[in-house]
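wait is this the right file?? whatever heres the structure
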């Protein structure tokens, strides 16, 4: 659920590996493939079948001759297929922000990094319903010739994973070395282990849980309300017109609050005033935290579609791994054949450690091979993007089958 691009922009630019660095995957180019058409539509949990569906994805590293070294990376809410390296086609894609920073998990993916591209073939695809190359609400509905808008079907995490399975099969991969993701990406990794137990050797579930908390549901509800009550929303048919920027910005500001912790907010802003002197005695932006949130909201509307935000947060709401066990999480976990690494962060209150521990205990009771680590961190939910050094050590050891440090 976190926002990788805006997290990364807070880090010093010189900490990024430039494209010519031996630790970078270099310049990247996205691929696009049609994975559902009229003859082979995608079945959805809502009861509909859907086509056509195009998928954007990127690949780093090489598949070995046995095709058994592939790792699928799953992205969070506002992420995309560009997980590592530097986009060679940012302008062509109409995504100029990609010129300023590498992929959203670049610190974790590359030669010698946690997901070592000299050993593994790393794949990342964009979600169904998003706005970065895979079919979504802004795509053209072939029946009307206009963007789908709210005529786009309601999709689920299960639908996303079924589409990813088609991509993996298209690439000629029978069994994945690993699936891995943080936040909403972690729920996709868990869904992979549940839906395709025979095709996943190991699953890395980070800053996530078997389901979103009641508090998380509430935050998503308010975010969607902000979007749908924007005067420009027009029942989702705003393409080519004024867009619901105010509603989407408010939704994103709300989301950002959940990504941080009390400690990280204190360090970043405290109660400091924008002018550095004291209260300005007006009702505009006066505190630094207000300025920060407003900037994040305004920046987000330049690169994300409001309808996609509605659909993806709804998919997040609906996900519940226990559904595989008819409401019993232990029973659901009994399906899993993969080794699992679960990682939570002590200050994450969006997906708190208690929820990850609940999943770890369910897996343990089901006698699964699971390792659970709670990393002390002050970064809140954003920690899965920022605690690269600690996370890399765990991921590297787990993938190599050794003891966790």
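ok assuming it is, sequence goes like this
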């Amino acid at each position: 659920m976190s926002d990788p691009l805006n997290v990364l922009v807070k880090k010093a630019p010189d900490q990024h590996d430039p494209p010519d660095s031996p630790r970078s995957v270099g310049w990247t180019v996205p691929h696009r493939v049609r994975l559902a058409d009229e003859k082979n539509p995608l079945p959805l949990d809502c009861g509909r079948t859907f086509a056509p569906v195009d998928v954007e994805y990127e690949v780093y590293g090489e598949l070995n001759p046995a095709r058994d070294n592939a790792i699928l990376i799953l992205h969070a809410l506002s992420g995309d297929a560009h997980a590592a390296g530097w986009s060679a086609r940012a302008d062509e894609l109409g995504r100029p922000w990609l010129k300023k920073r590498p992929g959203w998990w670049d610190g974790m993916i590359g030669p010698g990094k946690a997901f070592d591209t000299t050993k593994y073939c790393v794949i990342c695809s964009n979600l169904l319903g998003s706005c970065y190359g895979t079919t979504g609400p802004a795509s053209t509905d072939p029946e009307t010739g206009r963007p789908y808008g709210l005529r786009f079907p309601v999709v689920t995490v299960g639908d996303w994973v079924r589409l990813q399975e088609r991509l993996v099969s298209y690439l000629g991969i029978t069994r994945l070395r690993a699936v891995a993701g943080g936040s909403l990406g972690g729920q996709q990794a868990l869904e992979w282990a549940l839906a395709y137990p025979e095709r996943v050797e190991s699953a890395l579930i980070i800053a996530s849980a078997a389901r979103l908390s009641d508090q998380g549901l509430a935050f998503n509800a308010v975010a969607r309300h902000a979007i749908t009550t924007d005067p420009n929303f027009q029942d989702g048919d705003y393409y080519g017109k004024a867009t619901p920027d105010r509603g989407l910005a408010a939704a994103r500001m709300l989301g950002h609050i959940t990504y941080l912790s009390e400690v990280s907010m204190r360090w970043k802003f405290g109660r400091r005033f924008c002018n550095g002197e004291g209260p300005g005695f007006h009702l505009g932006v006066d505190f630094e935290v207000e300025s920060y949130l407003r900037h994040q909201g305004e920046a987000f509307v330049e690169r994300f579609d409001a309808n996609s935000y509605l659909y993806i947060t709804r998919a997040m709401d609906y996900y519940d791994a226990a559904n595989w066990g008819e409401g019993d999480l232990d029973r659901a976990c009994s399906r899993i054949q993969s080794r699992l690494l679960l990682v939570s962060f002590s200050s994450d209150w969006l997906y708190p450690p208690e929820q990850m521990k609940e999943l770890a205990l369910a897996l343990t009771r089901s006698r699964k091979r699971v390792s659970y680590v709670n990393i002390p961190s002050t970064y809140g939910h954003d920690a899965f993007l920022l605690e690269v050094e600690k996370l890399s050590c765990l991921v590297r050891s787990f993938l190599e089958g050794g003891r966790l440090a």
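The first helix runs from residue 4 to 8. so i think its the right one actually
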